[in-house]
Amino acid sequence: MDEQETKRVGILVKPSFTFEFLDSERIEAESQIVPIDVRKCASAQEFGDLHLIVEDLEFAQQCFITAAQLGFPDEPNLLIKSLVFSGVVAYARPFMTGVRMKLMPDEFAGVWSPGGAELHTFLVEMRNRHVSHSVNAFERCDALGIIVTDSAFQRQGDVTGVGVATLTTIGLGRARLEQIHSHIPPMLELLQARIQIVKLRLHAEMKDQLASEGKWDMMPIVRFPELENIAKKRAR
């Protein structure tokens, strides 16, 4: 199925399916392990969203680490610029409004080192004002005219022309790039601990649902996206 879907959409499709038994009971050899729909449970959305948020922050961390290993932040270096921009976008995603739950910076105040809140604000503003939108002064291109003068800057002749003066910068300096290395790991630890708490809560809610309703519906473990629906919000 995965190979067929990969050929259909032109993107490598590698879905994953993970689970953990929380009740200890013997499972017979011929029994089937069946995924069921728990989306009615109050903790279901938070449990799923937290896993995607962790993936975003882990990806951001790897981008920043790899960029730092390649050398000094350098605008013309395509690989460094791509890694930094990708890291900034991935880091900021959990704090943006969307279909997923939204994290608040205050949730990490207790685990960030001094300067952590300032670094967070910088990365989010870099995403908003530079990477995703051209707003701040990290890039500039000014039109200019050209004439010819003598050494006293008195114009000579009628030679004229036009051009541009351009300055672009990655926007993330070496010091902040190195600071990020110790900024994200405690965030991940806090989120992983939260996942464990929500997991137990969701499990209890699922058991209550099974006991009260006496029925269950199977849950598909893969729901392939339609690339044509890029502008549409996904269903929960």
Describe it for me?
With 236 residues, the chain is mainly alpha-helical. Helices cover 44% and strands 11% of the residues. The protein contains six helices and two strands; from the N terminus they run ααααββαα. It has helices at 2-9, 44-70, 78-92, 116-131, 174-180, 184-213, and strands at 139-149, 155-168. Strands 1-2 form a two-stranded antiparallel ribbon. A hairpin with a 5-residue loop joins β1 (139-149) and β2. α2 packs antiparallel against α3. It is elongated and about 95 Å long. It starts with a helix and ends in a 23-residue tail after the last helix.
Topology record:
Elements: H1 2-9, H2 44-70, H3 78-92, H4 116-131, E1 139-149, E2 155-168, H5 174-180, H6 184-213
Antiparallel strand pairs: 1-2
Features:
single chain; 236 residues; mainly alpha; two-stranded antiparallel sheet; 6 helices; 2 strands; 44% helix
Backbone shape:
elongated
| Class inferred from helices and paired strands | mainly alpha
Our count of helices gives 6
Rg, alpha carbons: 26 Å
Poorly predicted residue ranges: none
Separation, N- and C-terminal Cα atoms = 23 Å
Largest sheet: 2 strands, antiparallel
Walk across the major sheet and give the strand order: 1-2
Provide mean pLDDT, rounded: 89
Give the H and E element order: HHHHEEHH
Q: What's the helical proportion of residues?
A: 40-55%
**Counted beta strands:** 2
Strand content: 5-15%
In short:
The chain has 236 residues and is mostly helical.
